[in-house]
DNA sequence: TAATGTGAAAGTGTTCACAGCA
DNA sequence: TGCTGTGAACACTTTCACATTA
């Protein structure tokens, strides 16, 4: 009845709301009762006006002239992002990256539960990561069906990512985060978010190399590296 | 003299150029001599027209009516991205995520060399990852200075990320990729790219939950999971 | 003729400035 | 008075359609 019609939140905003939620959780644990958009924006690494616009998609959240009530805003964001309901996920590929993700405690407090950690390597099967035992990748379909999983994380080598993806989709998964450096082909109705860690470094390097060429030749305070 | 004035390549384009370069390397190794924008775009997971526009920032690269010569285009992209010159990087925080990045062989072929892998945990010091031995974090300043490092990757716990960042900047680093879930404060002239793995999952989950609410109620072909 | 290269249009996201309200 | 909420301007990206050329 008091259900607010949260209309069409832009994807870029959703990503930032997740960051605000994390910052607010930290503030709440520190006992803070309220924050201004300026302080919250600074802690989240964004522009204050942009933050206020982001929050405005949820309707009025704050008190003019004062700021935002930390616990109330936190709950509002949690609800908007759907953190309240537990989500069952599977993760395929328990190498270093998969282990890092599975072991990240932050997921548990945000509604995510890894009900299946899968790997093709028998040597890794049975390892316990973040409280869950690694199972053979053969169990994929069984785990997905048993828990009604709709979200999967792929951290396998690139060579097998597509076949793993096909099996996930066939089993009923509709949303996939892919860390393998290949573009996954999926049928309509299935979402893939591609995350490419090496591209981040490459973009940074590009911007870095441009620094000297940009404006004035270069500053004296910067030492030249090569002999 | 034949230096082409590559003017103002958008950041979004730079990120995709890195992906194209990876795909082209695969095609070159498979012995392919040429590709069309359609095939390249499909392998990279983008729109063909967008790919052509991306490449157009480097000037004409292809042959009308035919396509692109794989080796020539590959070299062109490599030069534009600055892959040719070797870049010295340091990585701080050799947990699972740091180990995953340090062990990724793809960096070596793209001009990146990790000249320093640093960790605060004495138990990890001395481990060899990707051919490089882990050193104590106390050596940070020494490594940065010795190799003229300007690029760093931070994969430490969130609690120490800012202090590590401060030390990196003081030592001369100008570009940082930060995987710790905190916004880093840096002086002007220093670039930070924030990568937040948990946010990716959160955005995906948000879109996933919206699927049922979107357009028509839902399709018959999709099974409902919960009992 | 079959593909590239590219203006122009549409869409999306960000920033600004200020009205509105405790 | 101070900070939120937001329309309007701006900047950036993507998409489309088609002229262009080997």
From TrEMBL, chains A, B:
Residue ranges of domain CoA-binding in the record: 82-183
Alphabetized InterPro entries for the sequence: CoA-bd, NAD(P)-bd_dom_sf, Rex_actinobacterial-type, Rex_DNA-bd_C_dom, Tscrpt_rep_Rex, WH-like_DNA-bd_sf, WH_DNA-bd_sf
UniProt DNA-binding residue ranges: 19-58
SMART domains, A to Z: CoA_binding
Claim: Oxidoreductase is one of the keywords in the record: no
Binding site residues for NAD(+): 93-98
Subunit structure: Homodimer.
Protein name: Redox-sensing transcriptional repressor Rex
The organism of origin for this protein: Klenkia sesuvii
Lineage, opening ranks: Bacteria, Bacillati, Actinomycetota, Actinomycetes, Geodermatophilales
Gene giving rise to this polypeptide: rex
